[in-house]
Amino acid sequence: MLFITTIAGIRARRAELATTGTRLAFVPTMGALHEGHLALVRRGQELADEVWASVFVNPTQFAPGEDFERYPRNLEGDRVLLEQAGVTLLFAPSTKELYPRPSTTVIDLPELTAGLCGVQRPGHFQGVALVVAKLLNIVEPHVAVFGAKDWQQAMVIRRMVEDLCLPVRVEVHPTQREDDGLARSSRNAYLARDERRAASVLHRALEGAVAAIRAGERRGPALEAEVAAEVSGEPMTRLQYVAAVDPDTLAPLAALKDRVLLVAAVHVGATRLIDNVLTEVC
Ligand code: AMP
Fold first, then answer.
1. Tag placement on the chain: N or C end, fewer CB within 10 Å?
2. pTM of full prediction above 0.85
Protein backbone atom coordinates (compact mmCIF):
# COMPACT_ATOMS: atom_id res chain seq x y z
CA MET A 1 0.00 0.00 0.00
CA LEU A 2 1.32 3.43 -0.94
CA PHE A 3 1.34 6.01 1.84
CA ILE A 4 1.09 9.56 0.53
CA THR A 5 0.80 12.80 2.49
CA THR A 6 0.89 15.44 -0.26
CA ILE A 7 -1.63 16.61 -2.84
CA ALA A 8 1.10 16.61 -5.49
CA GLY A 9 1.90 12.99 -4.66
CA ILE A 10 -1.74 11.98 -5.09
CA ARG A 11 -2.08 13.85 -8.37
CA ALA A 12 1.02 12.15 -9.79
CA ARG A 13 -0.20 8.66 -8.82
CA ARG A 14 -3.71 9.46 -10.06
CA ALA A 15 -2.36 10.54 -13.47
CA GLU A 16 -0.47 7.23 -13.75
CA LEU A 17 -3.61 5.29 -12.88
CA ALA A 18 -5.62 7.17 -15.51
CA THR A 19 -3.38 5.80 -18.25
CA THR A 20 -4.35 2.23 -17.31
CA GLY A 21 -8.11 2.76 -17.32
CA THR A 22 -8.34 1.50 -13.74
CA ARG A 23 -11.64 2.32 -12.04
CA LEU A 24 -11.03 3.92 -8.66
CA ALA A 25 -13.14 3.87 -5.50
CA PHE A 26 -12.37 6.18 -2.58
CA VAL A 27 -13.22 5.92 1.11
CA PRO A 28 -12.63 9.13 3.08
CA THR A 29 -12.33 8.70 6.86
CA MET A 30 -11.16 10.42 10.02
CA GLY A 31 -9.26 7.29 11.08
CA ALA A 32 -9.48 5.21 14.27
CA LEU A 33 -10.77 2.66 11.83
CA HIS A 34 -13.24 -0.08 12.65
CA GLU A 35 -15.38 -2.63 10.85
CA GLY A 36 -17.74 0.11 9.61
CA HIS A 37 -14.94 1.73 7.63
CA LEU A 38 -13.68 -1.63 6.35
CA ALA A 39 -17.16 -2.49 5.05
CA LEU A 40 -16.95 0.68 2.94
CA VAL A 41 -13.61 -0.53 1.57
CA ARG A 42 -15.13 -3.88 0.63
CA ARG A 43 -18.03 -2.13 -1.07
CA GLY A 44 -15.54 -0.02 -2.98
CA GLN A 45 -13.78 -3.19 -4.12
CA GLU A 46 -17.07 -4.47 -5.52
CA LEU A 47 -17.63 -1.24 -7.43
CA ALA A 48 -14.14 -0.53 -8.75
CA ASP A 49 -10.76 -2.11 -9.56
CA GLU A 50 -8.82 -0.32 -6.85
CA VAL A 51 -9.68 1.37 -3.54
CA TRP A 52 -7.90 4.34 -2.03
CA ALA A 53 -8.67 5.65 1.45
CA SER A 54 -7.88 8.83 3.34
CA VAL A 55 -7.35 9.48 7.02
CA PHE A 56 -7.74 13.12 8.00
CA VAL A 57 -9.28 14.52 11.17
CA ASN A 58 -10.83 17.59 9.60
CA PRO A 59 -10.63 20.59 11.94
CA THR A 60 -13.23 22.65 10.04
CA GLN A 61 -16.05 20.26 10.91
CA PHE A 62 -15.47 20.55 14.67
CA ALA A 63 -16.86 23.52 16.57
CA PRO A 64 -14.85 25.10 19.39
CA GLY A 65 -15.41 22.95 22.49
CA GLU A 66 -16.06 19.77 20.49
CA ASP A 67 -13.68 16.80 20.56
CA PHE A 68 -11.19 17.72 17.79
CA GLU A 69 -8.14 17.55 20.08
CA ARG A 70 -9.11 14.32 21.78
CA TYR A 71 -10.62 12.59 18.71
CA PRO A 72 -9.03 9.09 18.64
CA ARG A 73 -5.99 8.92 16.37
CA ASN A 74 -4.19 5.71 15.45
CA LEU A 75 -2.53 6.16 12.08
CA GLU A 76 -0.21 3.17 12.46
CA GLY A 77 -3.10 0.84 13.31
CA ASP A 78 -5.15 2.32 10.47
CA ARG A 79 -2.33 1.65 8.01
CA VAL A 80 -2.24 -2.01 8.99
CA LEU A 81 -6.02 -2.45 8.73
CA LEU A 82 -6.24 -0.74 5.36
CA GLU A 83 -3.31 -2.70 3.94
CA GLN A 84 -4.85 -5.97 5.16
CA ALA A 85 -8.16 -4.95 3.58
CA GLY A 86 -6.45 -4.53 0.20
CA VAL A 87 -6.48 -0.73 -0.03
CA THR A 88 -3.73 0.25 -2.48
CA LEU A 89 -3.13 3.85 -1.39
CA LEU A 90 -3.62 5.76 1.85
CA PHE A 91 -3.73 9.56 1.71
CA ALA A 92 -2.97 11.05 5.11
CA PRO A 93 -2.36 14.78 4.64
CA SER A 94 -1.44 17.25 7.36
CA THR A 95 -3.80 20.08 8.20
CA LYS A 96 -1.35 22.50 6.53
CA GLU A 97 -1.46 20.43 3.34
CA LEU A 98 -5.26 20.65 3.00
CA TYR A 99 -5.61 24.10 4.57
CA PRO A 100 -2.44 26.08 3.73
CA ARG A 101 -4.47 29.11 4.81
CA PRO A 102 -8.00 29.42 6.16
CA SER A 103 -10.56 28.73 3.41
CA THR A 104 -12.85 31.55 2.36
CA THR A 105 -15.07 29.31 0.25
CA VAL A 106 -18.22 28.14 2.01
CA ILE A 107 -20.27 25.22 0.74
CA ASP A 108 -23.62 25.54 2.42
CA LEU A 109 -26.68 23.36 1.85
CA PRO A 110 -29.12 25.02 4.25
CA GLU A 111 -32.16 22.96 3.31
CA LEU A 112 -30.37 19.75 4.29
CA THR A 113 -28.44 21.08 7.28
CA ALA A 114 -30.87 23.35 9.13
CA GLY A 115 -32.31 20.42 11.10
CA LEU A 116 -31.16 17.27 12.92
CA CYS A 117 -27.41 17.38 13.69
CA GLY A 118 -27.16 20.82 12.05
CA VAL A 119 -29.05 22.37 14.96
CA GLN A 120 -26.56 21.23 17.60
CA ARG A 121 -23.50 21.50 15.39
CA PRO A 122 -23.67 24.79 13.47
CA GLY A 123 -21.05 24.92 10.71
CA HIS A 124 -20.35 21.20 10.96
CA PHE A 125 -21.74 20.29 7.55
CA GLN A 126 -20.02 23.25 5.91
CA GLY A 127 -16.76 21.79 7.17
CA VAL A 128 -17.69 18.32 5.96
CA ALA A 129 -18.75 19.59 2.51
CA LEU A 130 -15.58 21.63 2.14
CA VAL A 131 -13.19 18.81 3.02
CA VAL A 132 -15.05 16.22 0.95
CA ALA A 133 -15.08 18.58 -2.06
CA LYS A 134 -11.32 19.07 -1.64
CA LEU A 135 -10.68 15.34 -1.32
CA LEU A 136 -12.83 14.47 -4.33
CA ASN A 137 -11.04 17.11 -6.41
CA ILE A 138 -7.65 15.80 -5.33
CA VAL A 139 -8.34 12.06 -5.68
CA GLU A 140 -10.79 12.19 -8.61
CA PRO A 141 -12.34 8.78 -7.89
CA HIS A 142 -15.02 7.21 -10.05
CA VAL A 143 -17.00 6.32 -6.95
CA ALA A 144 -16.81 7.52 -3.34
CA VAL A 145 -18.28 5.35 -0.57
CA PHE A 146 -19.93 6.79 2.54
CA GLY A 147 -21.72 5.17 5.48
CA ALA A 148 -25.46 5.31 6.10
CA LYS A 149 -24.65 5.81 9.79
CA ASP A 150 -24.02 9.48 9.03
CA TRP A 151 -27.14 9.74 6.87
CA GLN A 152 -27.46 13.53 6.93
CA GLN A 153 -23.80 13.82 5.93
CA ALA A 154 -24.31 11.36 3.06
CA MET A 155 -27.29 13.34 1.77
CA VAL A 156 -25.31 16.60 1.99
CA ILE A 157 -22.49 15.05 -0.02
CA ARG A 158 -24.82 13.47 -2.55
CA ARG A 159 -26.54 16.80 -3.15
CA MET A 160 -23.28 18.77 -3.25
CA VAL A 161 -21.93 16.39 -5.90
CA GLU A 162 -25.11 16.83 -7.91
CA ASP A 163 -25.24 20.62 -7.53
CA LEU A 164 -21.55 21.11 -8.40
CA CYS A 165 -21.54 18.51 -11.23
CA LEU A 166 -18.64 16.67 -9.60
CA PRO A 167 -17.84 13.64 -11.78
CA VAL A 168 -18.18 10.97 -9.10
CA ARG A 169 -20.78 8.42 -8.06
CA VAL A 170 -21.77 8.64 -4.40
CA GLU A 171 -22.42 5.25 -2.87
CA VAL A 172 -24.08 4.96 0.56
CA HIS A 173 -23.42 1.70 2.37
CA PRO A 174 -25.44 0.26 5.30
CA THR A 175 -24.46 0.86 8.92
CA GLN A 176 -22.28 -1.81 10.52
CA ARG A 177 -23.26 -2.68 14.08
CA GLU A 178 -21.99 -4.40 17.20
CA ASP A 179 -23.79 -7.54 18.36
CA ASP A 180 -26.17 -5.55 20.57
CA GLY A 181 -27.06 -3.22 17.69
CA LEU A 182 -24.86 -0.27 18.64
CA ALA A 183 -23.61 1.39 15.44
CA ARG A 184 -19.86 1.04 15.18
CA SER A 185 -18.19 4.40 15.67
CA SER A 186 -14.74 5.72 16.46
CA ARG A 187 -16.39 7.62 19.32
CA ASN A 188 -17.52 4.37 20.98
CA ALA A 189 -13.97 4.26 22.32
CA TYR A 190 -14.92 7.13 24.66
CA LEU A 191 -17.55 4.99 26.44
CA ALA A 192 -16.87 3.59 29.90
CA ARG A 193 -18.10 0.02 30.41
CA ASP A 194 -21.50 0.95 31.88
CA GLU A 195 -21.95 3.69 29.27
CA ARG A 196 -21.20 1.19 26.52
CA ARG A 197 -23.95 -1.08 27.88
CA ALA A 198 -26.40 1.83 28.16
CA ALA A 199 -25.63 3.02 24.59
CA SER A 200 -27.42 0.05 23.05
CA VAL A 201 -30.74 1.70 23.96
CA LEU A 202 -30.42 4.00 20.95
CA HIS A 203 -30.71 1.30 18.30
CA ARG A 204 -33.23 -0.63 20.40
CA ALA A 205 -35.46 2.44 20.55
CA LEU A 206 -35.23 3.01 16.80
CA GLU A 207 -36.04 -0.65 16.12
CA GLY A 208 -39.00 -0.34 18.48
CA ALA A 209 -40.33 2.47 16.29
CA VAL A 210 -39.83 0.31 13.19
CA ALA A 211 -41.91 -2.40 14.87
CA ALA A 212 -44.61 0.20 15.57
CA ILE A 213 -44.64 1.14 11.87
CA ARG A 214 -45.05 -2.53 10.96
CA ALA A 215 -47.95 -2.65 13.43
CA GLY A 216 -49.62 0.23 11.59
CA GLU A 217 -48.39 3.44 13.21
CA ARG A 218 -48.19 6.18 10.56
CA ARG A 219 -47.84 9.34 12.68
CA GLY A 220 -44.30 10.74 12.77
CA PRO A 221 -44.69 12.50 16.15
CA ALA A 222 -46.05 9.31 17.77
CA LEU A 223 -42.98 7.41 16.60
CA GLU A 224 -40.69 10.15 17.90
CA ALA A 225 -42.46 9.98 21.28
CA GLU A 226 -41.99 6.23 21.34
CA VAL A 227 -38.24 6.53 20.74
CA ALA A 228 -37.98 9.27 23.36
CA ALA A 229 -39.81 7.13 25.93
CA GLU A 230 -37.57 4.12 25.33
CA VAL A 231 -34.39 6.22 25.58
CA SER A 232 -35.60 7.91 28.77
CA GLY A 233 -35.91 4.43 30.32
CA GLU A 234 -32.10 4.26 30.28
CA PRO A 235 -30.98 6.74 32.95
CA MET A 236 -27.39 7.01 31.66
CA THR A 237 -28.55 8.45 28.33
CA ARG A 238 -30.03 11.80 27.38
CA LEU A 239 -31.87 12.22 24.09
CA GLN A 240 -30.70 15.18 22.03
CA TYR A 241 -33.18 14.79 19.20
CA VAL A 242 -35.29 12.21 17.43
CA ALA A 243 -37.09 12.77 14.14
CA ALA A 244 -39.08 10.89 11.54
CA VAL A 245 -38.01 12.45 8.23
CA ASP A 246 -38.10 12.01 4.50
CA PRO A 247 -34.85 10.11 3.72
CA ASP A 248 -33.96 12.33 0.73
CA THR A 249 -35.03 15.83 1.79
CA LEU A 250 -34.72 15.25 5.57
CA ALA A 251 -38.02 17.14 5.97
CA PRO A 252 -40.04 16.07 9.04
CA LEU A 253 -42.92 13.72 8.25
CA ALA A 254 -46.15 14.32 10.13
CA ALA A 255 -47.68 11.38 8.32
CA LEU A 256 -45.54 8.56 6.93
CA LYS A 257 -45.61 7.50 3.34
CA ASP A 258 -43.35 5.25 1.20
CA ARG A 259 -40.10 5.50 3.15
CA VAL A 260 -39.09 7.02 6.44
CA LEU A 261 -35.77 7.67 8.14
CA LEU A 262 -35.90 7.55 11.92
CA VAL A 263 -32.88 9.43 13.14
CA ALA A 264 -31.69 10.29 16.64
CA ALA A 265 -28.79 11.60 18.69
CA VAL A 266 -28.15 10.81 22.34
CA HIS A 267 -25.60 11.75 24.94
CA VAL A 268 -24.19 8.90 26.96
CA GLY A 269 -22.18 10.66 29.63
CA ALA A 270 -20.04 13.15 27.73
CA THR A 271 -20.20 11.18 24.48
CA ARG A 272 -22.62 12.08 21.71
CA LEU A 273 -23.81 9.18 19.56
CA ILE A 274 -26.01 9.22 16.46
CA ASP A 275 -27.92 6.49 14.69
CA ASN A 276 -30.73 6.01 12.21
CA VAL A 277 -32.85 3.36 10.55
CA LEU A 278 -34.40 3.57 7.13
CA THR A 279 -37.59 1.68 6.56
CA GLU A 280 -40.23 1.16 3.91
CA VAL A 281 -43.77 2.03 4.91
CA CYS A 282 -46.08 -0.42 3.23
P1 AMP B 1 -15.59 8.83 10.10
O2 AMP B 1 -14.20 8.29 10.12
O3 AMP B 1 -16.36 8.61 11.34
O4 AMP B 1 -15.65 10.26 9.59
O5 AMP B 1 -16.37 7.98 9.00
C6 AMP B 1 -15.85 7.80 7.71
C7 AMP B 1 -16.89 7.10 6.89
O8 AMP B 1 -17.22 5.85 7.49
C9 AMP B 1 -18.19 7.90 6.77
O10 AMP B 1 -18.72 7.75 5.47
C11 AMP B 1 -19.06 7.21 7.80
O12 AMP B 1 -20.44 7.33 7.54
C13 AMP B 1 -18.62 5.78 7.66
N14 AMP B 1 -18.96 4.98 8.84
C15 AMP B 1 -18.65 5.28 10.13
N16 AMP B 1 -19.17 4.35 10.96
C17 AMP B 1 -19.83 3.46 10.17
C18 AMP B 1 -20.59 2.29 10.42
N19 AMP B 1 -20.78 1.83 11.66
N20 AMP B 1 -21.12 1.64 9.37
C21 AMP B 1 -20.94 2.09 8.11
N22 AMP B 1 -20.23 3.19 7.80
C23 AMP B 1 -19.68 3.88 8.82
1. C
2. yes
